[in-house]
Automatic annotation (TrEMBL):
Required cofactor(s): Mg(2+)
Matching PANTHER family: MOLYBDENUM COFACTOR GUANYLYLTRANSFERASE
Protein name, entry field: Molybdenum cofactor guanylyltransferase
Keyword set, alphabetical order: Cytoplasm, GTP-binding, Magnesium, Metal-binding, Molybdenum cofactor biosynthesis, Nucleotide-binding, Nucleotidyltransferase, Transferase
Record-listed E.C. numbers: 2.7.7.77
UniProt-listed HAMAP family: MobA
Residues of the MobA-like NTP transferase domain: 13-174
MF terms (GO), sorted A to Z: GTP binding; metal ion binding; molybdenum cofactor guanylyltransferase activity
Binding-site list for Mg(2+): 109
Primary localisation category: cytoplasm
Length: 215
């Protein structure tokens, strides 16, 4: 999906939907959330912020394919966590001939992520190999980051060499600039913009917040 050239966006983006959704028990990408699925919601929130959007998914069911979004899987079936999705995104950037120095990623399961996520992460990029990641009152949210394409080979070596699959461990190797995002003000009180849906109880809570926040 392409964005208009005059949007001011500088980087392409990927919705990471390649996890197992084991705590939910069914693919989170296709969960209904308000009027749409989580994958459509994430795509709709990300599209105005980026030059192009694609979906990183490993369970590519007919229902997911029917959405007609650009889609790619991880490089192998090791399910190495979000780092595997970030690596696949950096490789996809080359395949898709995305011209930018960085790719932004967002998680499939944080439906309230900020409308100015990419604009604010961009301000923390002071050189082509800088990583920028999001933080909030709830802590660091490194799945929400701007990733330099120049680090793709390093990440591939890291993963194929059997190093830690923890995103924070690979981040510590390179350092990252953290960008703090404030809570949303809602009719029910303050909401962390990176509120994360992992379980059915989280989904119920998020649906409650949805009714209290402007779309
Ligand atoms: N490409 C890719 N993305 C992943 C992988 N594991 C997690 N993610 C993504 O990383 C983000 C955070 O995932 P989690 O909520 O920690 O994990 P999950 O697999 O979705 O759910 P659980 O199985 O319940 O832990 C989501 O956007 C996931 O889709 C993976 O192996 N590959
Ligand atoms: Mg999660």
């Amino acid at each position: 999906m392409q964005n208009s050239a005059d949007s001011g966006a500088a980087f392409p983006g990927v919705v990471l939907a390649g996890g197992r959704s084991s705590r939910m028990g069914r693919n989170k990408a296709l969960l209904q959330f308000g009027p749409e699925s989580l994958v459509l919601r994430a795509t709709r929130r990300l599209t105005p912020q980026v030059t192009s959007v694609a979906i990183n998914a490993n369970d590519r069911t007919a229902e997911l394919e029917a959405l007609g979004l650009a889609m790619f899987g991880d490089l192998d079936d090791s399910r190495s966590g979000p780092l595997g999705g970030i690596l696949a995104s950096l490789r996809y950037a080359s395949l898709a001939a995305w011209p930018a120095s960085h790719v932004v990623t967002v998680a499939i399961d944080s439906p309230f992520f900020p409308a100015d996520l990419v604009a604010r992460l961009s301000t923390a990029i002071d050189r082509p190999d800088r990583i920028a990641v999001a933080a909030s009152s709830g802590g660091l949210h490194p799945v929400f980051g701007l990733w330099p394409r120049s680090l793709a080979d390093d990440l591939e070596r890291w993963l194929s060499g059997g190093q830690s699959l923890r995103l924070r461990d690979w981040l510590a190797r390179h350092g990252a600039n953290e960008v703090h995002f404030p809570d949303h003000d809602t009719r029910l009180g303050r909401l962390d913009p990176f509120f994360n849906i992992n379980t059915r109880a989280d989904l119920a809570a998020a649906q409650h917040w949805l009714g209290a926040i402007d779309p």
